Structures are given as structure tokens and as C-alpha cells.
Amino acid sequence: MIWNLGSINADNFYHLSHLPAPGETIAATRFHQGLGGKGANMSVAAARAAARVAHIGAVGPEGKWAVDRLLEYGVDTRHIAQVEVATGHANINVDAAGENNIVLFTGANHAITDQMIGAALSEASPGDFLLMQNETSGQSYAARTGKTLGLRFAYAAAPFSSQAVQAVINHIDLLVLNAVEAAQLQEETGQRIEDLPIDDIIVTLGADGCKWVSNKGKTAQEFASYPVEVVNTTGAGDTFTGYLIAGLDRGLPMPDAIDLAMRAGALMVTREGTADVIPDLKEIQDHDFS
After folding, report:
1. Least confident residue range of 152-156, 209-213, 232-236, 267-271
2. Which of 2, 25, 66, 172 has the fewest C-beta atoms lying within 10 Å of its C-beta?
3. Strand order in the sheet with 100-105
4. Catalytic residues
5. Beta-bridge partner residues of 281
6. How many helices (H) and strands (E) does the chain have?
7. Which element (helix H / strand E) includes 237?
8. How far apart are CA 171 and CA 153, in angstroms?
9. Known PANTHER family for this protein (predicted)?
10. Can you tell me the distance from the alpha carbon of 181 to that of 237, in angstroms, rounded to the nearest whole number?
11. pLDDT tens sequence across 156-187
């Protein structure tokens, strides 16, 4: 079982000829809205990877549609609270090459209380996964509570904050971050990734694949990416993480879970959208990646 303390956002996509420079006004060629937020994306990915996942989060008075969408995608939504603060949202600019930049409003994601988290985790069992990202309140409390309950703690260090990582670093069993974030963490801590007090670290490298550093096993292994035609990179990292944790939760060895996650991320970048277009397990199994 996966317990995901995660953000829920409305994703507003603006399709542009190029990403705007400072002070530039540019007209969008197309617009659409969908379900997003790193937390929601990871919950949907894990559910579509055939894992049982319960989402811990919050939406505003207008956010019932997001909860309904998560439920439709197979996520347990019993621990998503409705609060008075507006639902979080993201304005996403996507250029013709598929690159993006994103402006976030945290909203209800930062109105999650320790009481909400505690009520959810009281139903967890030792060996379950606790998954978190840096888009909600309550991270330190959840990390401490999860470890006390014997949960395996996976942390996706995005949006990156060295302070946020270091606040929970002694509880983390599996850390997922990209190459830029890994370099920033090494600079801030003065420690190599290999010297951090974390059993397993996955560094995603975009088109160059990813690297698994097993500090517990004192080994490192690189995984090549699957070649695909990139349409939009938004949500690919979240899809990777959701599938990775789902694979581990289902008992896959780390290399097999990483390979599954790599394939899911590769298929995701061929699509436009976020949570609404995350591929399911059968699509990945049926797809020819050669």
C-alpha cells in the first residue's frame, strides 16, 4: 500500500511558439485545463501501475472535480479534505519543442494539518510506502510519524529545496531527484550523493536515463533511456516516480522497478497533459520500445 501526502492542482496549459522572456507578452495558440500537481500525478501513476494508493491532501470549495477525477483513476480519496483555501493550481507554458516553465499557487496544499495526516496514517501498516514531494505542508510531521509506524519513506525532492530535504533526510529510505537537484544538494550539504545517510538514491538524467546509487549496497548502476519522440515533458518525472514506487510496493527488485518507471516516463513524454494522460500498465506492456 502507498500513502501519498501530495499536492492536488488544476493545471492550466498555455501552448506558445516559444517560452516568454522577462517582460515579454506573448499570445497562446491553445489552452486546456487538467488535473495535476506532483502529488496527484504520482498517485494516478501508482494506481495505473496496479498499486493500491491512498492520497492524503486537500482541495478548496471548488475542488470536488479533482477528487472525483482521482477516484475515477483508481486512487483512494477518503483522506482528501475540503478546506476554505482555494485549490492549488499551476500555469504551465509549453513551447513548440515541448519544453515548459511553470508558475505554482499552493493554495489548499499548504492547508493540510498534522491531524489530517495522522488520521490517514493511523490506517497504515508496517512496510507500506509513505511517498511525499515538496508541495504540501506537514512533511516533517508525516516523515516522523511514518518512520514510527514502520513505513518505507520515499521522497521526491521537487520543487527542490535543500532545506526541505535536510529537514527529513534522516528518515528517507529512497530519494528521487534530477541531476540539477542532486548537484544543488551536494553543494548545500557538502556531501556527495554516495555519502548521504539514505539507502537508495535515484538521479534522473532526462534523455540520458537515470542512475541508481545504492548506499546500502555500496553500488551504482546507470540505466539508459528509451528513445521516443518528445511532445511534452510535463509530468514525466512524476510518472517515473509513481511507477517506481508502485513497482517496489508490488515486490519488484529495484532494477526491474526502475526499468518499468523508465518505460512509463518515456511513454508519458509522447503525450500532452499531466495526470489525465498518464499511461496504464497494459499500455506500457503492449508498447514496442525498440
Report:
1. 232-236
2. 25
3. 30-36, 9-15, 88-94, 100-105
4. 238
5. none
6. 9, 13
7. helix 236-249
8. 7
9. RIBOKINASE (PTHR10584:SF166), SUGAR KINASE (PTHR10584)
10. 13
11. 999 899 999 999 999 999 999 999 999 999 99
Residue with cell 529537514: 167
Cα separation, 23 vs 202, in Å, equals 37
pLDDT, residue 33, reads: 83
Amino acid at 178: N
Amino acid identity, position 227 = P
The pLDDT value given to residue 106: 95
Domains and CATH numbers, the chain: 2-8+38-88+112-283 (3.40.1190.20)
| pLDDT of 273 higher than 80 | no
Q: How far apart are CA 223 and CA 226, in angstroms?
A: 10
- Cα 115 from Cα 79, distance rounded (Å): 11
* Beta carbons within 8 Å of 90's beta carbon, 6+ residues apart: 9, 10, 11, 12, 36, 37, 102, 103, 104, 105
Q: What single letter denotes the amino acid at residue 274? A: T
* pLDDT attached to residue 207: 87
Give the confidence band of 19 by pLDDT, cuts at 50, 70, 90. Answer: very high
The answer to whether the CB of 178 falls within 8 A of the CB of 203 is yes
| Whether 35 contacts 70, CB under 8 Å | yes
Q: What is the pTM of this model?
A: 0.90
CB 170 within 8 A of CB 149: no
Q: Which residue, 130, 208, 218, is CA-closest to 174?
A: 130
